[in-house]
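Preliminary data (for renewal application), flavin-adenine dinucleotide complex.
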Amino acid sequence: MDFDLIVIGSGPGGYHAAIRAAQLGLKVACVEKGAVGGVCLNVGCIPTKALLHVAAELRGAKDASAFGVDFGTPKVDLAAVDRWKLDVVKKQTSGVGMLFKGNKVTLLEGEGRFTGKNTVEVAGKAYTAEKFVIATGSRPAAIPGFELDGDRIIDSTGALTIGASVPARLLVIGAGAIGLEFADVYSSFGSEVTVVEMLPQIAGAADADASKELAKALEKRGMRILTSTKVVSQKATAKGTEVTVEGQDGKREVITADRVLVAVGRRPNGAGLGLEAAGVQVDERGFVTVVNDHMQTNAPHVYAIGDVARAPLLAHKAMKEGIVAAEHAAGMPSAYDTVVPSVIYTEPELASVGMTEAEAKEAGFEVRVGRFPLSASGRASTLGVSGGLVKLIGDAKTDILLGFHMVGPNAGDIVSEAALAIEMGATLEDIALTQHPHPTISEAVMEAAEHAHGKAIHIANRRR
Ligand code: FAD
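Predicted structure:
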């Protein structure tokens, strides 16, 4: 065999798997047909967060007059913003290249395809290995009739480059994390933004209260959000792209936009890998079927991780799965069984981990809910923040924390406290008894836990 392990795809899942396996002494190759770092580093998590940072600075400068500081109207050099974003991406991707070198992972450039049980062909050359990790990720989902043209109609990759000028009117189709983050960016740069979502709420499967709170905040920022609404058709006119949308009641409306962003989810890259040659099953949606907690497929020498393996399509889940697969391939008993936090990096951020209230009830729990509105947080006041909330879901019988949902500043960092609490089997009381520094936004987590026990200090407690 040429290698102990060949990883196909160098996104967050693939590069974690390759490096961890190499750390454990395996001879490893990683196949990549595009840019090292995958979607996350090149056209996903990292560039969007770079743009969101610029957007936040821009809004901060504009909003500072509320605190008595006038910066005047900010001047934006879009080409410089783009260069900065690309520099951030380059720093991250070259870091992965260096880690590959440092850990002696061989990078095989080209498209990988199985041609036998233990053989993968890359750029016309066959490489053999004992074991494989499929980490080929996902691509944007399309809507028939809304074909991308790189100008009027774009996907998330197209939206990363704002171009020569900010579109006056942006229509975002899909109010998941990706759609909402771009809505935030473009709205901050001055676009009039409309978001159309087919589901009854924004932010996908988020807790209903958190979703409502985020929608309220984004609408307050000037975005128009239409839920339970689907797009029907589009046509280019002299006025712009006219998109016909239809509400649940069948009522139609034409929305004219200068740019239309299609952000309706992602499709796994399970096809075209020659998986039949390795005897690996793919389901009807294109996900490579994972059969156990070690991330093995039905062919035990082949693992599948990240977006191509299963939802949720998140980078940190891919990373964790990559580590589990690598360790198991190296003979360790590692298994994947952790909760997956998720964050929407809008302002305010929405972060959650564990069960929503509805999920907990559906799973048969008698739930105990603790809430704390950030309007009662001293730290929020000092930041000029008036909305936002923390909502904790506990099991009324055992007091164990089942879920955390937050809308507010730093929610994406604070969620890690809740993820750890859930992993450790902490109770609401554990959280309530833990000192949180004052004044911080994180105090709201403690007060929500206190509220669940009828002893919050800064808000009225329900009669118990
Ligand atoms: P990917 O990152 O998709 O990488 C797969 C790699 O495999 C690619 O480089 C591809 O070129 C390569 N490949 C595919 N087929 C082959 C082949 N046959 N041969 C060789 N190479 C191949 N997630 C978060 O957790 N947080 C975020 O903030 C976040 N923001 C996002 C923003 C945007 C705009 C987008 C699009 C996604 C975002 N995501 C975010 C999702 C995140 O990017 C993905 O969940 C993550 O990249 C999945 O990692 P992966 O390793 O499974 O695959």
